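Every protein is a chain of amino acids, and every chain bends into a shape of its own. The fold becomes a row of whole numbers, each drawn from a learned catalogue of backbone shapes. The protein below has been through that process, and both of its lines are reproduced in full.
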Amino acid sequence: MKKIICICLLVTVFGSAGTVLAATIRVGLVSGQATAEISCDSDFILSDGSENMTVPAGKYFLNAQDGALAMENVIFGRRLYISASEGKNIPQINKRSYRGRFVAIAIGNMLVLSNVVDLEQYICSVLPGKTTPVWPDEAIKAQAIAARSYVWHMKSIHSGDYYDLTANDQELLYLGIDGEKEVISGLVKATAGQILRDGNGMPALAVTTSSSGGRTESAWEAWRNDISYLRSVEDYDQDSPDYEWDYNVAPVMLQNILEQNGYEVGKLENIRLSPIDEKGSDRTSTGRVKYVIFSGDKATCRVSGDFLFEALALNSTCFDIDTGTPAPESLKVQIENSYGMTVGSKDINIKVNDDKKPVWKNITRSYHMISGGKEEKVIFRGHGRGPGVGLSMWGARGMVNDNERISCAQILRHYYPGTYLSEI
């Protein structure tokens, strides 16, 4: 039996239901969907902006219908504000807990629901996903300032939209209260209100990367967008577990991925990509891949490094390609006792660094032939994790480990040259 909403007309402005701090942002939680679940273990408040309505504890579904919002057969207008009753718990949205309040808007039969939350509380939620409490404090503080700068930049360019950024933003993943960690929240508080500004005084687009493999990428090379403070700089990420990485894929799997995306080359015969140390026209100045050419028995196609990065879930676009059968890194050897009985086994490391290659590979280093062998693989050997632009998280850690006296301001000046620290 459907719940009945007890509506209490309080004839008060929504702002009286709770104080909203000045430095707030709007995070899109639901977009392009027809419904969202709202649940609370205590009564909560709905408002159309002029009148408040008290809703009993329970689980409800908010729907968008022909430009209006509906819940439990009660039709409202186009916009609703959702907040906690005074002294009560904040409602959950789709079973996740957040701080602040919520705004729901109907656009035809689609719903947009955003979380209006204090900026510092938001940073406390997203930052643990980009760092760890055992890292140096100055590295974490640098990341907090970068994240706050990025959010304030997004707010400045999306002021007329329904939200400033989404919960699954590619730079910052927002998990609400579940994302918070007390130790990191303390370091966020230590940098409260601080952001980076560019030479024109605008909030910096302070994007980050996990690691770059030795040198960050410029915004111009990555996006063809000339942002003065997003230049290529030396990275200090040698301790990153992704500083070097390998990924192997069978040629037939690569063929299938190409075909699924409209590149019908047929049976794969060769791959063309210049070596990373030569930095041909198919690479950026730091060695990241612009494009790769695949040739098969039916056709030849050219795909971007970004396509392979996403389609194969590679760590980065900074990679070399090789073909062949990867040598095993270890050999399992049986252990026998004095009676010749097997009593166990042991893995012996047999990995070797053999730079000898066939003569034809030394002459045409950009061509990687597919022989069709049963165990053959296409081998991606890469560096770094992420887009490689902006503050390197492992690089910031490396800078502090190399010099314990370095400050978060010095880290930020290195990775975002030409910016300066400012209050919001």
About this structure: The chain has a mean pLDDT of 89.
